[in-house]
Predict the structure.
Amino acid sequence: MLISTVLSEEKPALAAIPVLIVALALAPQVVAESTLITLITVLMYATLTLSWTMFSGPTGYVSLATAALFGIGVYVAALLRDGLPIELIVLVGGAVAFLVAAAIGVLTLRLRGVYFILFTFGVTALIRNTVHWWEANVSGTVGRHVTGATNGTVYLLLMILFSAALVGGFLLRHSSVGLALQAIGENQDAAEHIGIDVIRVKVLTFAASAVLIGATGAVMATRLSYIDPSIAFNPLISFLPVVMAILGGVSRLYGPLLGATLLVVLQEFLITEYPHVYLLLFGLVLVAVVLWLPGGLVVLAQRNYFRLKVRWIRLRMRISRLRRIRQASR
Amino acid sequence: MTSNTAGPLLQVRGVSHRFGGLKAVDDAAFDVHRGEIVGLIGPNGAGKTTMFNLISGALRISQGSVRFKGEDITRLRPDQISKRGLARTFQTSKLFTGMTAFDNVRLALIYGNPLRRFRYEEAERETNKLMAAMGLLSDRNKLVRDLPLASRRHLEIARAMATSAELLLLDESMAGLTPTELERSKQLVRSLRDRGLTILMIEHVMEAIMELCDRIVVFHFGHPIAEGSPAHVAADPTVRGVYLGES
């Protein structure tokens, strides 16, 4: 009982979220341009991973459609960049991703387990190839140019999306919908039998989590400056958030954040230091994580946190006992 | 009395269900009236659990009809049926084992309630009240996977009740209990009836069936072969034949 109360404590998150957001807002004033660029990558992956975790974390439905939703945001930006202000493009990117995700959800969320994973992967390939065919045969151009934005603008927009993902993730975890998603993940039949409209809950949450993915794609399009279907719908955008979430652990809100940050930093380090074998080393790290740390870093952190807490309680008890003895002897 | 309460609470008519070539339920028909405890018995494979799955919407009914409170629920989904006040437990418990006992009940209270959606915090009060009434408060913050069998059974009943159930389908909720636990479970079922619930229970523990039930329906090869008071059914030659091999 003590263990479960200590572990379920998420009060620190209430204080940590605003602190983190303020720190990120001040960062551009303090850090160098190169660090800002790394931070942009971190924020992008952190947002994607947090969004992915909102739905896939509690339900265990591993979605590989992230690249599709991200790519849709990228293409929305490419088509609208010269006509609309960037803030509006980001909103449109999110809205289109919402609609596409809802459609994917209706088609696939009746499937369970591995069928769902394969279908989302297939849908992503289908969308990529359809866009490719359309560009080649209808618009007559495979690549597109996207007018860039300053690093400051990109950073600011990503920071807003990231904050939304963080706050959204926190609220979802503490809402009845979050609990319902967990119930669906544990036992879908039982969830249905206590009155949860499982298809509706799944489709709506999946679509809602896609808003931030599409919006992130729209922002990142301005950094890519040249895009084509294989860049916009890069399968790594589907895989990396899954790996980051597993590395960090999905049982706590800070897990995906931790995973995304560490992997981005590791990736940058490996690319610069070992450019030829970087993917190999990266892969080895991932295998190690899955083998030895299936609950993610979160579990490691919790274990140590709990150990410290127990030690602290014991220490306090000993002190109070000593005090009582001293008082008694007086 | 409204028209809803005049007829039988649950009315099963001509329901059949096939698994491939096997007719698991064959032209089943029976009623359950308000305030009754009805037992559903029969040898293994008689189609009792399939009958539950058909009533609760876990399986789609292709033939026949089920009416609940006078309303046709034949084609409804499980979540819709649950919201109308028909709840069930499962033969092998289907609790959310990674959650606390408390969250299991709270979730049912929030989603199973047809009239007003409880807010997340409000639900907390109501959940505590229900768990206290069922004697489950000591398990409140424990993860379900850490609970012993008897507690799980009771918790699953509490979760079903939380959906503001009027009819409760209990699928072998007394199997594998110690004599003391069995006594507590029987007490619990009686108290549920006293709270105004109607109960339809599948059970192999004959002692419990004979003591608790007002009426018993006997299934054999998916078809009801006898129906009546416990004494009547126990004396029925067909039932004795099915159970004991007497001719």
Q: What stands out?
A: DSSP finds 15 helices and two strands in chain A. Strands of chain A lie at 144-145, 226-227. Residues 2-329 of chain A form a domain with the ABC transporter involved in vitamin B12 uptake, BtuC fold (CATH 1.10.3470). Chain A has one domain: 2-329.
